[in-house]
Amino acid sequence: MKRKVLFFISAGLLLLSFYMVLVFVPTERDMGIVQRIFYYHVPLAWIAFLAFFVVFFASIGYLIKRRPLWDHIACASAEIGLVFISLMLVTGMIWAKAAWGVWWIWEPRLTTSLVLWFIYVAYFIVRAYVVEEERKVRFGAVVGIIGFLNVPLVFLSVTLWRTQHPPLTIFTDGLAGSMMATLLVCLFAFNFFYFYLLAEGTLMKADERAVRQLKEKSMRRNP
Amino acid sequence: MENAGYMLAAFIVIWTALLGYIFVLSRRQARIQRDIQLLQETLGRQD
Amino acid sequence: MREISKAFIIAAKDLLTEIRTREVISSVVVFAVLVIVIFNFAFGSNPQAASLVAPGIIWVTFAFAGILSLNRSFVLEKEEDCIEGLMAAPISRESIYLGKFLGNLFFILLIQAIVIPVFSLLFNVGFFNIELVLVTILASVGFASVGTLFAAMAVSTRARELVLPVLFFPVITPVIIAAVNASAVILEGGVLSAITQWLGIISAFDVIFLVASYLIFCFIIEE
Fold it and tell me: Which of A33, A197, A204 sits opposite B7 (nearest CB)?
């Protein structure tokens, strides 16, 4: 029931964002129409980081409490985070191509997101190659914790590295009112959407676990 | 109106990805429900 | 303090094993020298290019050599089921981590001590400043800290040669960036004060991930 509510709020806000980004907000002076990518690129980044923080928190929760629900939350959030950060990277690349003519720039936020992408791919690779279920979950939790702790250091080192080169600001500071409103709507839209996906994903992982247990039960009766 | 192509590309990518992800999730959900039903029937027969 | 001496005993055990078999040092050193030679084919024809990329080459070489060395550190334990033996002994999990960490750190530093003169020879780049030694030691601590944790994980998966690099390389990014940049500054004639920020990053990495790995390690080897 609550999921349906989340779904409709998200869908509504996402549709509203569609209108605001495409129609409502005025075109930015310097960059032209491509700048509108900004209204999705930034919230995608924020929500991806929120997702990975949830992975961090839930991983710690699992290691302390050992209840499967914590892992379901962590795994679902990692999956959603990976989708969002991939989208953030792709939109960043499209923006870079439009603004600077190259598909990739070693800008701190983009580079940090790339490293983060690899870390969360590693999260799934580790889980994929561990045989025992309990150990898989434990190892995943460790990756979720270490990976998140790494983020500030990566950002710091890349920022320091790139100060030796001319700065490339992706994000324009000082937003007009309508621009800020559009950005906030997109942020809220993705936020609600994330929580909806998290709810669905967590329950699905719980169901998958139930399936596994039923299979084991059935195999024990019929060896 | 230059770079409108890029703008369009970004939009298509975002919405395709998000809708695609929801689609993948619903397919997974359907399979899980099928599995649960199958297993419950099997276990019911075994009892 | 007795826990520390137990850690030293574990490190000493690894050392003794290596002295008798010499398998890790020889293969890793040969590998590292091969990597450097191959890089030389890529860059060596242009002497200016060589000095520009020298810091990058040496640290990429150390990263790859580090993976090899770290990989081996748990393979023997796994194959002979030594982990269970270690856990049955009256020694805390944390001490096991410290012991393996110290052993890995020692091997990494030893390999670097052998490889660096070879590198200096082949690339005509002097690597014998005290500042570079400091950078190398601090970075090696970083390598060994997360490397020991990840190696313990990787050895319990079905694809350890895949899992360790996939985990290690993204997480080690801040250390690589900082070490390469610091080395470049020093090689161009910089002084210690010029690289304080880079040293700060590496030191922060060392502290954070030594503590984190120390605390998390017990979750990896629990049975």
Answer: A33
